[in-house]
Write a structure and sequence with these properties.
heterodimer, A: mainly alpha, B: mainly alpha, 2 domains, 4 helices
């Protein structure tokens, strides 16, 4: 049953991807990428990866379309075709050869869902056995990402932080770039129904974000997803009321502090563990018992992740919006 | 049994939406198709939660239901600020994007 659904979803993914590649109209590509994101989230869920699907839901549905449109407002909606024809033959050959290699390689892969596949026999059984002992939390994914793979997640947080700084250094300070337009023309504040419905939903989105943040050890979710959800709520406010109003609610200075303090909190937990006699990011020493220490550590680093992701996503939105008047 | 039927009906509806999103022809067709795909995905995720008997999957459907429409608002705002340019692009008359409403377009 699930396999058949998966085949259909995969088919739609391929069709959407081909349509995205062949479309010359960038607005159409943005719309299709929204569909692609929805489909891939359904596919992740079919593969039982609820945490990844929630990330895709939070980022894909709420934020990436907004940011793509913000970028699109800065350029032409038509893709330029100049110079493409010349290299087409070479790229065709490269792509064809790569495809043949990849298809050939798939014959050596274990069957889909094979219990003896290396991925199910390598470290996964160890994680499944030890997460309840070491951390006593039901969501094994959070245990792996937060504790066993704490270094990787630390790296990811710094990648997000760096991406925020990169966007700012290319697009410039949102405050300096502001285009001043008359107050009556900002946002969707004259469209009564979107404004009312949106304003009603914003508290619930933030509440749900907080639930995802602090319930991440028990159900799908965690800092990344929660950060994206809260950022989506603020971006919704900015779209409805105008970007300047959103900047009054959370000024740029606060966003900069959020970006940096999240990464700092994560690293700080690692250093705290070091000072209390453990290894870097070994949370067992943080509290009286190792299990409680692990739980505190995961809670704190997830808060750091959430802060940085929220700050960076809202900052990127402001950086685009200030230039494109979105 | 009935849930499986619903899942397949949703897949069929999503395929129809996908056809409309790819074929267009108007931008508004595509926006509507994306919105419909979003709604169908919310329903599909909810149905999957029942098929797999995993009520925590409903969190995902909830997340989608809450923030699915933000993209559509961004499209609205995008149209409002660049209406003239999009009309030009829709009629396939490329280039000539200079006659937009004054004061409405900041970034380009």
């Amino acid at each position: 049953m699930v396999e058949i659904l998966n085949i259909f979803i995969m088919l739609m993914l391929v069709i959407t991807a081909l349509a995205m590649v062949s479309s010359r109209h960038l607005f159409v590509t943005v719309m299709l990428s929204g569909i692609f994101s929805l489909l891939i989230a359904a596919s992740f869920l079919l593969l039982d990866a609820a945490d990844v699907a929630l990330t895709e839901a939070a980022v894909g549905a709420g934020i990436s379309t907004v940011l793509f449109l913000g970028a699109l407002a800065l350029m032409d909606v038509e893709e330029t075709t100049r110079g493409v024809r010349r290299i087409r033959m070479v790229s065709l050959i490269v792509v064809a050869v790569t495809t043949i290699f990849i298809v050939h390689a798939t014959f050596y892969m274990p069957a889909f869902g094979d219990i003896n596949a290396p991925i199910h026999q390598h470290v996964a059984p160890w994680y499944i056995q030890h997460v309840p002992i070491h951390m006593d939390i039901p969501n094994i994914v959070t245990g792996i990402l937060g504790s066993y793979r704490g270094y990787d997640t630390l790296g990811e947080v710094f990648v997000v932080f760096t991406a925020g700084i990169g966007v700012l250094s290319i697009l410039g300070d949102p405050i300096k770039n502001r285009q001043h337009r008359p107050a009556h023309n900002r946002g969707l504040r004259h469209y009564l129904i979107p404004r009312l419905v949106g304003r009603m939903l914003i508290p619930f989105i933030i509440l749900f974000g907080l639930y995802v943040q602090f319930h991440g050890e028990y159900s799908p979710g965690g800092g990344f997803q929660a950060g994206a959800l809260v950022a989506a709520a603020i971006i919704l406010y900015a779209l409805l009321e105008g970007e300047d109003k959103a900047l009054q609610v959370i000024p740029m200075r606060v966003l900069y502090i959020m970006m940096a303090s999240g990464a700092l909190l994560y690293g700080g937990v690692g250093v705290a563990a070091l000072l209390m006699g453990g290894n870097f990011l070994d949370y067992s020493v943080l509290a009286s018992t190792p299990v409680a220490g692990q739980q505190w550590g995961i809670l704190l680093i997830e808060m750091g992740v959430g802060l940085t992701v929220t700050g960076v996503l809202i900052t990127i939105f402001h950086a685009f919006a200030a230039r494109s008047n979105l | 049994m009935i849930i499986q039927v619903v899942a397949f009906a949703l897949i069929v509806t999503m395929m129809l939406g996908l056809v409309r999103a790819i074929k267009g022809p108007k931008v508004y067709d595509r926006v509507l198709a994306v919105n419909m795909m979003g709604t169908k995905t919310v329903l599909l995720l909810a149905v999957l939660a029942f098929i797999d008997d995993r009520p925590d999957y409903l969190d995902l459907a909830l997340a989608y239901a809450l923030i699915n429409f933000i993209g559509v608002f961004a499209v609205l705002e995008f149209f409002r600020t660049r209406e003239s340019q999009l009309v030009i692009a829709e009629t396939d008359d490329t280039g000539e994007a200079s006659d937009e409403a004054p004061g409405n377009e900041g970034g380009k």
